[in-house]
Amino acid sequence: MAALIEVERDAPPVVRAIARDLAGCLGDPPFAELTARVRGAAAVRSLDTPEAVTIRVADGSVSVSHGIADDADVVATARLAGTGGREPRIEGAGRHPELAEWLARVVDAPPPPWPGGWTTSAATPGYRS
Fold this sequence. Notes:
Layout: E1 5-7, H1 13-25, H2 29-37, E2 40-46, E3 52-58, E4 61-66, E5 74-78, E6 89-91, H3 97-107, E7 127-128
Parallel strand pairs: 1-4, 1-7, 2-5
Antiparallel strand pairs: 2-3, 3-4, 5-6
């Protein structure tokens, strides 16, 4: 069963972008298997802007919302603009290595093809806002 990605209502662009990257990652069977195993709250903080996202994952379901939750187990800080090579710095990896590995793969995912990267988000299987 494919993971369902739940996105908050009226989500800002950074939330939709991270959800789209996550949906793309789920097309990779080893990543999908990892998603089915990991549990916790993972956050992504932009290195260049005040944007931030929290991703909650449990039992193969994923929710994405804006901001950094107080209970985030791991927090990745990375340059979110541009294409690839984000090289996230992850806090909490020592306590939650599998969740940190999962988050690093989401943050370092290749961007969707352009034009249409934003508009294809809603058409991605498992993506629901």
